[in-house]
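Format notes (please read before filing issues)

Several people have asked whether sequences and structure tokens are stored in separate files. They are not. Every record keeps both together, in the order shown below: the sequence lines, then the token lines. Line labels are part of the format and must not be stripped during preprocessing.
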Amino acid sequence: MKTKIITLLSIFVLSIMPAVAQQKYACVNTDYVLRCIPDYANAQKRIDKYVADWQKELTDKQSEIEELRAEYEQESYLLPDNLKKRRQEEIKLKEQELRSLQQQRFGVGGDLDKKRAELLKPVQDRVYAAIERIAQEKNYAFVFDKAGSPAVLFANKKFDISDDVLESLGYKPGGASVPAVVEETKKKPTNREMRQRDGDRQMNRDSKDLKPKKL
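Then the structure lines:
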């Protein structure tokens, strides 16, 4: 029975292999794309500022608790039991407030997650929409993300559509922070055409250098 199942699976895999081989694939590095978009970098800076302010807020409250605890330890032997209990409860309440604030700022669904959704997600949505648009235009069956993915061990550059995504959003590839200016009446050369043009120029320079010089 087991052998029969394996045989059937083998037949199924062999039958779909031609169809799979005909599918078009591409890859994209979303980290690279996002780094090239000024709106994303500016949003990340704003989030970093929020994080720094929240960290300082937590540090100040932690320092306050440590001071209260140090004062209590110095004076506890002079305090009656009812004041000891009151001071202990005060410190405990401050610690609970600190944990609650930590959860509010950095917990799941907290202020940090909300700020990311508010500031970063709109840019990410634009990128994903551009990827989907290019995939549909070029009839890609799958688009893999190379950013931090251990599943992609190798990707040929010619199948990388990261620069295409940036150009479709109006940005220059290569980490530029200024939107690309594309004239409507003049077609912008593709990256492949620009590389070919640079290669032709270099070949012309090399051929000139190889010509014998007149004595």
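For reference, the curators noted about this record: Confidence is low (pLDDT under 50) at residues 1-14, 176-192, 206-215. The two ends are 88 Å apart (CA to CA).
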